[in-house]
Amino acid sequence: MRKYMLASILIAAAVIPALAQSPPSNSVTLNWTNPSAYASGQALTIGQVSVFYDTTETSQSGPATTLTTPPLLPGPHTFAVSACDNLVPQTCGAMSNAATVTIPAVPLVVPAISNLTATVNP
What we know:
- By secondary structure, the chain is mainly beta.
- The chain has a domain at 23-103: Immunoglobulins (Immunoglobulin-like, Sandwich), CATH 2.60.40.
- Helices cover 11% and strands 30% of the residues.
- The chain is built from one helix and six strands.
- It has one helix spanning 2-15; strands spanning 29-31, 46-53, 56-61, 66-68, 75-85, 99-103.
- Strand 2 (46-53) and strand 3 form a beta hairpin.
- The chain is rod-shaped and about 90 Å long.
């Protein structure tokens, strides 16, 4: 019985991440591949990745390879990433290529009033 219960728990644990919520509207998900070696060929351990978009910089510890932004305002947004090693002092690589997306403007439409009534007064 315990063996089957453990198997059910493991299956549920594998399925639940797949049911995770979708990213919020007007957010952007970035994906990239970190370098695995220095230019000299020596193995590289990523200590941090810095993500730059518009005037914002955010850093993620460790070898992150994805980031989803909060909802962004309509218009163009440009992104780049830079990986840093885990040495002290830390050495960071050059910025990646830039990726640009445009969040479409959504026109604000005021809906019509739908509950108007008229009453004859005595």
